Write the C-alpha cells for this entry.
Amino acid sequence: MDVHSAGERTSRRRFLGNTMTAAAGLAAVSGLSLSGCSESMRRASGQKSSQFIRSGDVVLFQGDSITDAGRDRNREGNANDVRALGTGYALYIASQLLAERADAGLKIYSRGISGNKVFQLAERWDKDCLALKPSVLSILIGVNDIWHTLNGNYNGTVEVYEKDYRALIERTQRELPEVRLVLCEPFVLRTGAVNDKWFPEFDRYRAAARRVATDFHTTFVPFQAMFDEAVKTAPPGYWAGDGVHPTIAGAGLMAQTWFSTVSHAKA
Amino acid sequence: MDVHSAGERTSRRRFLGNTMTAAAGLAAVSGLSLSGCSESMRRASGQKSSQFIRSGDVVLFQGDSITDAGRDRNREGNANDVRALGTGYALYIASQLLAERADAGLKIYSRGISGNKVFQLAERWDKDCLALKPSVLSILIGVNDIWHTLNGNYNGTVEVYEKDYRALIERTQRELPEVRLVLCEPFVLRTGAVNDKWFPEFDRYRAAARRVATDFHTTFVPFQAMFDEAVKTAPPGYWAGDGVHPTIAGAGLMAQTWFSTVSHAKA
C-alpha cells in the first residue's frame, strides 16, 4: 500500500520531471557547438514534444517586452493569430508547434506587456492568465525588476522579486492545478544598456528564478546559459542589440532552446 | 582533355544539383507523415544547410503578398530587421538561419509586394533584386497571375506567366551569374477564395513554374505537394484561411520545407 499522499506523489513526479529538464538544459548548452546544439534540439523536438504538449492544449506566453514583441493587443483574444503573437520567440515557437502538431487543436496566446515586472503580472493575472485557463504556461519575467531599479524608476530588490514570483506561481498552481509551467531564465547580454552596474546583482535575480522553478517543480529554460554559449560564436549585439531585447537571431535561438527543454521535460 | 565547354560543365553541375533537389523534395513530401516529414527536414537542415548557404551570403526573398506578409517597407534597406521581413515564411526562415549560422555574417532581406505578378517583379527587378546583389535568391510568384485573371483584373495566361518568368530568370542569371536560385512552387488550398474555377488551370501554372526551375537548373521547393500532404492532418483553412495566404501554421510548414529542400540542394 502506498503511504504517500497524493500531494507527495505529485511532488515526486514533478521533481523527477524537473531533474530531467535540468539535465536536458545542461546537455543543450554545455560543451556543444551551436550547430550541434540546435541539431540535437531539433531531433529532440521532433521526437518528444508530444510528451509535454498535448492535444487540446491552451498555450500561453507571459512576460515583458521580450514576450510582447510588438504584438497587437486588440487581437489578443484570438488564438493562433500572427499579429496577436508579436515577432519574437513566442511567434517562432507557435509557427513550429502549429506546423508540427496540426492535429492537436492547439490554441496559442501571448500576453506579454512591455516594461512589466513580476508584481505587474500579478496585478493582471486574473484577466491575462487565469481566465484563459492555460494548460501550458510559459513565463519570462525579471529583467525589468532589476533594470528599473538600476535606472531609478523602481525600488525593487531581488528578495521582493523572489517573494512576488513565489506568490504568483503558488496562486497559479492553486487556481490551475493541472497547468504545466515553463519558467524561463531572465537573461542579459553585455552590450548596449547592460553595463558593469548590473553585476553581480543580476546573477542573483537569475538564481532566484531558478530557485522558484526548482521549488515549484516546473520546467526551467536556461536562456542565460544559452546566450553565454552563443556569444562564443557571434558578439552580444548579434543576439540582442541593447543587451536586453533579442534580435531575430536571439529570438530564433530562444525558440530552439525552449523546444529542446520542453521536449525533454516530463509533463 | 575535357571537351565540354565551361557553360556545359556549369549546366551539368546544375543538372546534378537539380536532380538531388527533386529527389529530396519527393522524399520530403511523399509517403511520410507530417511529423516524420518535419523530423527528416530538421535532421537534414541541421546537417547540410551549410552546403547551400555560405558565409557572407546575401539572401533575398522575392514574391507577392505571401512573401510581403506585412513587412515594413520603410525598413527594407536594413538586413536582418524583424520588421522589414514581415511575419511569414521569410521571417521564420530568417530566425532559423540567423540562429544557426551566427558565424556566417548573413544578410537577409525581403522585397515581396502584395498583389505582384511575375511581370511586376520584372518592373522593379533592378532596384529590388539586382541592386542588392543577392547570392541566394528565393522567389515565390504566380498565384496572382491566375487569381487576377479569374477575378477580371488582369488579362493573363499561363503562357504569358511562363514567358515572363523565363525572361526574369534568364536576366537574373545573366546579371548575377553566381546567384543560387530557389524557385518556390505556387500553391493554393481548396477553401476561401479558391473554388473549382481555379482548376485545372492552376495546375498548369504550377507546372510552368516547375519547368522554369528545371530548365534553368535551380532548386525547386514543392509547396503544393507539401500542402496536399498537410491537408490530410488538418483542414485547408488551418493552413491558409482564404486558400491563398498562409496562417502561422502554413508559413511555419513552408519554412521547414524550404529548409529541407535547400539543405538537400547542391550549391
Observations:
- Residues 123 and 168 of chain B are 10 Å apart (CA to CA).
- Chain B has one domain: 13-263.
- The two ends of chain B are 25 Å apart (CA to CA).
- The interface with chain A takes residues 34-35, 38-39, 42-43, 45-47, 70, 80-83, 85, 87, 91-92, 94-96, 98-103, 230, 233-234, 238-239, 247-253, 255-256 of chain B (CB under 8 Å).
